[in-house]
Amino acid sequence: MTKVRQDAWSHEDDLLLAETVLRHIREGSTQLDAFEEVGDRLNRTGAACGFRWNAIVRQKYEQAIQIAKKQRKQKNVPSNAAEYPAQ
After folding, report:
1. Where is the Myb-like domain (predicted)?
2. Do 50 and 32 form a contact (C-beta atoms < 8 A)?
3. Which of 20, 45, 67, 74 is 20 to 30 Å from 9 at the Cα level?
4. Exposed, middle or buried by CB within 10 Å (0-12, 13-18, 19+), for 8?
């Protein structure tokens, strides 16, 4: 019988971490803020979340990270409608 560590990361924990970090990237926030948010929800430290992200999870989401960065840049670019309001 295999024992699961009390502090082991579940698939759901990893998914929450990834979704939260990607949201923070899209919104222009920092990954550190994302780690703190996840840490609060999972009763872990922000440092533990950051370590998990960098050691395990990030590699699985490289493409999603690039998409989130593009989405962030698109949000920061004003549209023509915003520059020239209708009269």
Report:
1. 1-57
2. yes
3. 67
4. exposed
d(CA 55, CA 71): 25
Handedness of CA 67, 20, 50, 77 (dihedral sign): positive
Going by pLDDT thresholds of 50, 70 and 90, the confidence category of residue 7 is confident
| More confidently predicted of 73 and 82 | 73
Tell me how many domains the chain contains.
Answer: 1
Q: Which of 33, 67, 75, 69 is nearest to 53 (CA)?
A: 33
Residue 5 lies in a domain: no
For residue 34, give its domain range. Answer: 11-77
Q: In this structure, is residue 65 part of a structural domain?
A: yes
